[in-house]
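Re: the request from the purification team.
They wanted to know what the chain is likely to look like in 3D before they choose a buffer screen. I agreed to run a prediction and write the result into the notebook, where they can find it.
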Amino acid sequence: MADVLLLHSVYGLRPAVNEAAERLRSAGHRVEVPDLYEGRISQTVEEAREIADAIGHDELLRRAVAASARLTEGAADGAPGPVYAGFSLGAALAQTIALGDTRARGLLLLHGTSDIAEDAAVDELPVQLHVADPDPFEPHDWLSAWYLNLRRAGADVEVFRYAGAGHLFTDPELPDHDAEAAESAWRLSLAFLAELDE
């Protein structure tokens, strides 16, 4: 069993995020799913960005870190840390937190990445990324540099690309949804978490 912090996308805590959490719980993992928007959900990316901008990146990160602390509260010294996971914006936040947590057990990214500081250093942190191909928010040049920088930082990185899928292809309520790609991503994600649990 892994402890997983699962962070929602820029759209907010949509039903697909809760369904993903239940999928992970059914596989035996303990999952914390914070509502970084405090109840607000958007229907368009424009509205979503307005909400995120109004809250601010630093505050979103603070809320995610606070949720991580709740997840690991009471853990014994030396116990493995959580797996950080997220969708798009939530993936970017998850990456930022994981790279700053020396106890991080793994990093599962769906549809998103973030900048990597030049001095970032991790000890063979397992990382798995699932991304549409092409993805206007994660272009090939960016992903190539991201991969090399994360490897340079010491992470063990796997990237899975899904040709023809939309950006948030795991969300069945969005036009981006691709059922075949989503099932493949979840199968690989669950295998990734199972390996971390061995």
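For the purification team: The chain has six helices and six strands.
Please add any questions underneath this entry.
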